[in-house]
Design brief:
Oligomer: single chain
Radius of gyration: 13 Å
Low-confidence stretches: none
Strand content: over 45%
Order of helices and strands: EEEEEEEEEEE
Distance between the termini: 41 Å
Number of helices: 0
Largest sheet: 7 strands, mixed
Helix content: under 10%
Shape: globular
């Protein structure tokens, strides 16, 4: 079993920065892919980006250049560094881990960006 715990959400003004963390515990395969999704009120959950076991990230185009995903495999932790935040980035952010065809999700952390 795998558990994911996110932290670091909060409220910030437009143009500000936040860093989210997601710590994974349990049976983690070394080639597991970790990533971030977000869900704005009344909208579907969408991909922000993910990072493979080699540390290579890939991003949704709407955040490319502003968000950075990094990973510390020694701690089974993935980070989402969010810069130049916009009000439309307001959402609940979820961490995801994929391995052996199974997806695991964190509980989500709220990010609110005010104009």
């Amino acid at each position: 079993q795998v558990q994911l715990v996110e932290s670091g959400g909060g409220s910030v003004q437009a143009g500000g920065s936040l860093r989210l963390s997601c710590a994974a515990s349990g049976s983690i395969f070394r080639f597991a892919v970790m990533g971030w999704y977000r869900q704005a009120p009344g909208k579907e959950r969408t991909l922000v980006g993910h990072i493979n076991s080699g540390g290579v990230p890939d991003y949704f185009s709407g955040v490319k250049g502003r968000f950075i995903i990094s990973r510390d495999s020694t701690k089974n932790t993935v980070y989402l560094h969010m810069n130049a935040l916009k009000p439309e980035d307001t959402a609940v952010y979820y961490c995801q881990l994929r391995q052996y065809g199974t997806e695991y999700w964190g509980q989500g952390t709220q990010v609110t960006v005010s104009s």
